[in-house]
């Protein structure tokens, strides 16, 4: 399972909303974090979120063991099973 953690603050809410549009992805809350999970890769398009670059690059709080970030650039954030 692939899991991405993002701090639950107003600036990061668009990431969770865009991720939740994918039917293979679930978005829950664990403490002060969004837990974005899927059995396969998680891909979030930056432009779809409307996030500015500063918010985009500071949004990742962590990934679950067994997950790894394979793309985090101006276009997308991609997390895959390790």
Structure summary, number of beta strands: 7
Question: Over the alpha carbons, how many angstroms does the gyration radius reach?
Answer: 11 Å
Instruction: Estimate the global geometry from the Cα principal axes.
Output: globular
The averaged pLDDT comes out at: 97
Give the SSE order as H and E letters.
Answer: EHEEEHHEEE
Q: How far apart are the first and last residues' alpha carbons, in Å?
A: 9 Å
Per CATH, the architecture is: Alpha-Beta Complex
Count of distinct structural domains: 1
Question: Do you know the CATH topology?
Answer: Phenol Hydroxylase P2 Protein
Largest sheet: spatial strand order: 2-3-1-5
Strand fraction: over 45%
The CATH class assignment is Alpha Beta
List the helices and strands and how they pair.
Elements: E1 2-7, H1 13-20, E2 25-30, E3 33-38, E4 42-45, H2 46-49, H3 53-58, E5 60-63, E6 67-72, E7 76-81
Antiparallel strand pairs: 1-3, 1-5, 2-3, 4-7, 6-7
Walk me through the structure.
The longest helix has 8 residues, at 13-20. By secondary structure, this protein is an alpha+beta fold. It has helices at residues 13-20, 46-49, 53-58; strands at residues 2-7, 25-30, 33-38, 42-45, 60-63, 67-72, 76-81. A four-stranded antiparallel beta sheet has the order 2-3-1-5. A three-stranded antiparallel beta sheet has the order 4-7-6. It has one domain: Alpha-Beta Complex (Phenol Hydroxylase P2 Protein), CATH 3.90.56.
């Amino acid at each position: 399972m692939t899991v991405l953690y993002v701090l639950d603050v107003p600036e990061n809410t668009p990431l969770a909303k865009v991720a939740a549009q994918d039917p293979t992805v679930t978005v829950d809350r664990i403490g002060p974090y969004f837990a974005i999970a899927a059995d396969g890769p998680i891909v979030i398009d930056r432009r779809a979120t409307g996030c500015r670059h500063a918010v985009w690059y500071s949004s990742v709080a962590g990934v679950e063991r067994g997950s790894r970030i394979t793309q985090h650039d101006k276009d997308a954030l991609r997390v895959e099973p390790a």
